[in-house]
Design a protein that fits this description.
Blueprint (H helix, E strand, L loop, with lengths): L10 H13 L8 H4 L15 E9 L5 E8 L4 E5 L7 H4 L13 H8 L10 H18 L14 E8 L5 H14 L4 E4 L20 H18 L5 E4 L6 H10 L7 E3 L7 H9 L5 E3 L6 H10 L5 E2 L3 H4 L1 H14 L3 E2 L7 H12 L7 E3 L11 E2 L6 E2 L2 E3 L9 E2 L1 H6 L27 E4 L5 E4 L4
Parallel strand pairs: 4-5, 4-11, 5-6, 6-7, 7-8, 8-9, 9-10
Antiparallel strand pairs: 1-2, 2-3, 4-14, 12-15, 13-14, 16-17
Helix pairs in contact: 6-7, 8-9, 10-12, 12-13
The structure holds magnesium ion.
The site of magnesium ion (MG) has 4 residues, from loops.
Amino acid sequence: MRIPQKQLVSRRSLLRRAAATAMFGPLFQATKGLASPGAPNLRSAPGNLKITDMRACRVAANYDYPIIKIYTNQDVYGLGEVRDAGVEGIALILKSHLVGKNPLQIEANLRRIREFAGQGRMGGGYSAVDMALHDIAGKVYGVPAYSLVGPKQRDRIRIYCDTTGHKDVKIYAERMLKRKQFGFTFFKMDLYTSLVEDRPGAIGPDGAATDKGLGYLCEYLQAGREALGTDAPIAADHFGHLSVKNAIRYARAFEPYQLAWAEDLIDWRDWRGYQQIRSATTTPILTGEDIFGLDEGFRPLIDNHAVDAIHPDPETAGALIETKRIADYAAQNGIRTAIHFAGSPVGCMAAVHMAATLQEMLAMENHAVDIPWWQDLIKGIEKPIIKDGYIRVPETPGLGVELNDDVVKQHLRRPGYFEPTPMYDDMIISGYSPGGKWPHVDANGKWCDCDWDL
Ligand SMILES: [Mg+2]
């Protein structure tokens, strides 16, 4: 006769379980614990946690926000975001490599998908998965996501504010002033060469500003300085990719305005060109918003001291773990880090958690100052999200935010809100994936419809 399993549980094993529960109590607060803080979640068992699904939606904005959810077998889920102006498919094609795996094995899961991460928007899938796994792990362990990657170095993150250009210098200056009135303390100007294209003699035959044209561009910097004051950090971007020689001319022309940095003067892959530019000017030089990974992209810029500061976007660079690795490596080599960001509040808060742990950082970008509903996309944190030019680091589990479903649904780029994704159940991309059995003569000379008989 079979003895019921529960009668086999001895008093000693009950004591062992009680001791384990006491030791690992915080681990058991994944789902119920979120609904009623402090209540142990006896349904959650981190060792048995499995990824079951990945779904997405896309928010229409100045740069669209592809947002993903990774689901598990224990109700807890994680939010992540693909790089702004990317597409959710770059994350969803990774689903088949993750389903069935324990989401708490964050680095093992990321190693599994790293070969599919590319540069630019193609780093967005890997980055979204990193964010969602940290959201899940933080919720399961009952800790903020930052604490999973390092000790907190700061309670709030300084935000810098991009300003789109206008050919009228006065209107441009008014835009800058408005940002100061919002409370920002760090600014960036989009200084397109095209701002001065209508002025006689401003553009040379190679499409770059002539010395005369650079004088006109500097009128915008002068107006920005007058609007914001001499002490306000002002960066400048969007010159168009220049030749190294033109980049040096631009950077030298900007020297009197003591910019925080001049951004992306040439293609980021040309670290030798950056090295030449940096050594020829006192204007700080920065690049990096389209680079994924330390080994895949940032290392030559850092090892060769080719720039004054790097500019990773956590939605391309590798989100929490890899962006921190990049920035801390840069800091160890005397190179500073500013963070590029133009996505939704989901990716923004993931970046905030990462930035909280950095050894050193200048400021993090926000590109949604003119989008009043941007911060309504999420709930769970204090509003306004940006206060006096800073974002406070959340102390709630995971990323600390949930989607405000009603608002997100009002701003979808295309129909569908985290709809099922069976089309991604099979591997779409794979490094090595033998398909299984096939008809052939085996090692014993027998015909079979079988797999390798090793
Ligand atoms: Mg830029």
